[in-house]
Write a structure and sequence with these properties.
Layout (H helix, E strand, L loop, with lengths): L1 H27 L6 E4 L4 E7 L3 E6 L2 E6 L3 E6 L8
Antiparallel strand pairs: 1-2, 1-5, 2-3, 3-4
Length: about 80
């Protein structure tokens, strides 16, 4: 029974925790000018970043979405060239 719990932890719980940690780091790294994809599939450019929300522009539309709605950063903007 203990072996089953250990296997369950390493196969299901641990990878999900790692994925959540990586997503949280991605959300902390969002900067104005970044090109992002939302969980709804909208490809947009970040305009402003607030504590819990992000303003994005896609074509002629401007949206304000929660940070958790950002699925990935596809391209870094010009302001993040610190290296």
């Amino acid at each position: 029974m203990v072996l089953l719990v250990v296997v369950f932890y390493f196969v299901l719980i641990r990878p999900q925790q790692r994925k959540q940690k990586d997503h949280n780091q991605l959300l902390k790294a969002i900067r104005p000018g970044d090109k992002v994809i939302t969980t709804g599939g909208v490809v947009a450019t970040v305009i402003t970043v607030k504590e819990k929300t992000v303003s994005i522009r896609s074509a002629d539309s401007k949206f304000e979405v929660t940070k958790s709605a950002i699925a990935e950063i596809t391209e870094r903007g010009g302001e993040s060239s610190e290296s």
